[in-house]
Amino acid sequence: xxLLTLQAPAKINLTLxxxxxxxxxxxxxEMVMQSVSLADRIRLDWGFPGGIRAxxxxxxxxxxxxxxAVAAALAFRRATGQDWRDLRISIDKAIPVCAGTAGGSxxxxxxxxxxxWLTGAGLSPMELARIGEEVGSDVPYxxxxxxxxxxxxxxxxxxxxxxxxxWIVLCKPHFSISTPALFREWDRKKKHLRPDTKGVLAxxxxxxxxxxxxxxxxxxxxVLPPHQRRVIEGIKNAMIQAGALGSAMSGSxxxxxxxxxxxxxxxxxxxxxxxxxEEVFLTRPLAEPPAPAAEPAE
Length: 298
Description:
Number of helices: 9
Shape: globular
Largest sheet: 8 strands, mixed
């Protein structure tokens, strides 16, 4: 039996734009993505009897193919033509659930990276990303991580210069948001405010943190239900008042992030937000994917 431990980092959307609806029911997206140091811990027990299953200690998370981590293992086995049967995926959750920070997708990506290592399949990151396409729209990005421009459903990826060093505060309010409902509302309203993606790309190229922070923007914020929009705006305002250079909602929410150039200001923001919100985190941008760590067999 082989054991492997991996980090599954959260992501934020520095920008999120919807370009158009597609005939297949999906949408053409354009997003600048950034992985951060807040991460789930994934342990793979390859060869552990009992079939392919996940365990997390969270009763509401499925342990079968309804869990993206298990779906990723099945997709990897199918794509590589391997015939192994037993894998236990232990997930130690740190990333908030249903938060717009790709926790489930990152878990799936970690499983793909880990199985590639354990089985000696020798697939390239881009080959793993292609397997991830059938698991979820964010999985290809989570396989590659760091800073990237994502287009299409999220599977068309272009690596970007790293986000300059900074501190990132994440705050997830108590409610969850329906991603399909947000897309339906966008289709109905077709809001025209859009992020300055080109400006963000230029700022990244120049290593200009302030230039990036001033342009963070998420089109989903405009189609939130009014009561949720008020909460999101309140958290963003608290970030800015605490010294954030910029703040926006990540993905389909509800997590809000703020970019800070000073750790003391970021720490103060965490303290202030924690007075009213339960899930607040201080994290950093990642410039390279985390490496897997082998463990001695038990």
